[in-house]
Protein: P-loop containing nucleoside triphosphate hydrolase protein
Amino acid sequence: MSTNDLKRKSATPADDAAGGPTKKSRTTKQSKGKKAAQKGYTPVWPEYFNYFKVFKALNTVLAFCSSRKNFAITFPVVRTSVESLLHEPLELAKVAELKALLPEIVNFAYTPRIELRIHGDQQGGSSRRERSPDFSAFRTAGASSSRLNNVDEDEHVLVLDFIDNSRGVKSSNTGFAYALPPALTPAATKKLVERRNNRFVEAVNELLNATPADEDPVALLQSAAQDHIPLHPGAKNTPSASQTNVKGKYRTVPEPEERPTIADVIEKVEQQAWYQAQITYKRVFEAKEGQSATLDPPISDSIAQALRDSRKITSLYTHQVAAINALSLGKNVIVSTSTASGKSVIYQVPLLQFLEADPQSTAIFIYPTKALAQDQRAALQQLLCSCPGLEHVKVSTYDGDTPQELRAGIRETASVIFTNFDMIHASILPHEDTWRRFLKNLKIVAVDELHYYYGIFGSHVAQVTRRLRRVCAAVGNRRTRFVSCSATISKPAQHMRNIFGIENIEEVTEDGAPSGRKDFLVWNPPLKDPMDPSLGRIHSMTEATRLMRFLMARGVRVILFCKIRKSCELAMKALRQELSADGRLDILDRVMSYRGGYSQEDRRRIEREAFSGNLLGIVATNALELGVDIGVLDAVIMLGFPMGGLASFRQQAGRAGRRARDALAVFVADALPVDQHYINNPEELFDRSTNDLMVDLDSKVILEAHLQCAAHEIPLTGEDEKYFGPNMKDICETKLEKDREGWYHTHPRYLPYPAKHVSIRGIEEEKYSVVDVTRVGRPGGTAQILEEIELSRALFEIYEGAVFIHQGLTFLVQEVSHDTKMAKLVRSDVNWITEPRDFTNVDALQTYRIRELRGSPHRAFYGRIELFTLVYGYFKLRNKAIIDAVDLDTPPWQRETTGMWLDVPKPVLDLMKDSGMNPAEAIHAAQHAFLNRFALAADLRTECKVPEKEYKASASQRKRPARLIFYEPSGKSGGVAVKAFDHVNSILRDAHDRVETCDCEEGCAACVDSPSCKEGNLVSSKMGALIILKALLGLPIDVDLIRQQSDTVSDAFNTVVEATSVRVAEGVEVESA
Structure:
């Protein structure tokens, strides 16, 4: 019987997802007393296990330490106290045996001394509270001579602690009481000691019951303990980090071709001591052979040679042949197939054919990111250089980074440009007279990653493509063919038709490329201790980084996708700490994070490292969802369900196995409702269809903006309605200038450069420079810009005293200048993170329009909205526990936008309060229900309810109106809020019907939960949402709903008050439903 078998827990994890804030249920509470005696035989303990007294002494000392929130729980300090109780030495081996018995509970490892501090060397900002005592105050006391490896004390400290330590009396609303926890009461300390003693007894009984009759449990335990004796990072004469594993055997990371199969890796995972049935669902897609076909007409010998020499391509897949044949017949094409199926060949081969037939031919290749454009440009240049007769063809990048002095030469000599829609809108079309040579000979326009263009941005792009087609026709070119590639989406031809405004589209969706076997795993973090579910679940990030380390050590190249930038850096920080603690610096040197905000130089360097095959692991945000070729990836880990929904999930999962080898995709679920919905319904991850990609071609706001631009390029006439649709004439008559001959010209207020007044991505935010000044003042030391941060993020990340994380390294923000938009940082190894204490109010200021709700006495409103954000302090957090709170005095951030709102009727608000329902939960869920049924919801925001406020242990002074409110992000104006207002009746009805008929009990992503909710949908009530929707629609409310909800009454303090009327602009009349 193996040691791993002894350490494995057989208890089944509870159904509820702990480990994160959850609402307090009003149902009968579970008893929190002692656990009932285990069923079955209670074994007789061998005499060896009488060292229960050692555990009791340790337990008593650690319980005392845990009642002091900032006490340093280092092994020397603990050992001194324990030895005074036992009157005998406390040996490391005994502690290691306790770690082996309770591996999930006991923390026994070396930690850098600097990570035990609470304050940095330089305290940023001014705290209005007295500083908490520093851990450095507690020095190593004399103890027994038992030492590990005889290493002198240096910057590392041996820490001994219990992971289940409680740091004080908490509110009954667990997880939401954001206040510094007080010390444990004597009664609570006694209860903690008893619980741990009982857990030790259970662990010994579990070991004895699991040991076969022919084996010695003492020997097994002592053997297992060898794996838990901590090795000092500075110890000498130990195997090198790159060669040892947890068993002490020598090894190195296998080369890619020598790595084990994914099936073998999964089998090994399931044999690990830490594996506790986290895999709740598996699906395997078996390997598929490629299907080839022949082009008709065939390609020339020179193009065949180029494909063979540059790509080793000797035959084409069926989807490639279908697309190229369609283009040769004069059709437009969209190819919607899996990732890495060779889609770029589909437009590169026709380009070479056009160039062979006419050397004057030109092409535009459009990509959503500069990195992807650079990647594809290099591939095309290699192909051209391998094609006899086309080596001279000039390929250029034409984007915002292209120097002004080079742009004229590109216009005059380039045959192919790699660009984006921003440049076509703002640089090429406004200067169409200088681009006429290029546009007149334009044979092909290829748009990669077409699924990237939807919502407001996609609606702008749709108008830009129509302007491009119009200008090409004006210079005599009506032969341009359009080809686009996309991940698997619903209705690809319809989406292409919306974006380009063209017909005659060939849709290619049958994928002929080969693919390797792919294993999908759904992974739910286990309980910290299966014998004590009250401790909650292990954090999803801990699980994801542990799995990532396991895979990398076996030569499996991994990408870990995180939902937000901060999670990306925290995961990288965790990997740094864990790999360093494991002594695996050889792996750490081959791991990097990749996200938005990094400098262009850093991003290109990381991409080169990845493509070269040097990197074993990448921690990334969705910046790498798109198809940048970063080489072979064997596995994808998704930390939490992506905010982009199922489309993002499948796009991320597709990044692994890009070269037909076996691959792995793992979804590690958070404790959030959306994630847990897919834990309970994993088939939906694969079988449920994605939502249609929406493009708003009827938005008069967007259309007018582009008509102003189009009229400046070439004056408009009535004939241009074939490009811009039936709304064009009315807008031209009312918004543009008409001359005597009937031509429409740009309105003077848009002149002289209309495109500068129209931002297709929204107004670009101001940015703060984040500067590392650690080496300033030292010989040869200079300041270094780490990255640039948008204003909307800077407020929450670079206040004075904040911990800023870059590539997993921690920096302390020393100084912030709002005048120069610069933050100065110093490098500092700290073992805490900071979380801003802030709030954002979304308030209606003035009503511009009022609309009836059909069949209801209530109204919908549209108008001006103010966003007010204030960061008033921050918490220092370690292991999700608050260790300090600091106040800040920062100016508020105020901005205005437009939006719509619906006021909750007062009788319904009173009804919910009288029935004990939480109005904040009901309003938040109703807002998400509304957005879930609105096609353009990606470009609307709402005021998400914050659990720390709504379930606060004390009453909040900040009361919010009982109002469903939706607004456009500041800096963006696409008329989306107007669209929602105009269709409010149908959206409300759809939302009501969806919520009422949904089979779920607590709410799910199909009804009242949103993957993009920044507060994790934690403040939510499906029944409350249904009551509000019924009230707004004038439908009768079933009193049984109230009775059902009253069983789970919330005792949170009231944070919602009646909504007051908003000032109405002069002349506003109520519009009919």
Summary: The two ends are 74 Å apart (CA to CA). The first strand starts at residue 106 and ends at 112. DSSP finds 34 helices and 34 strands in the chain.
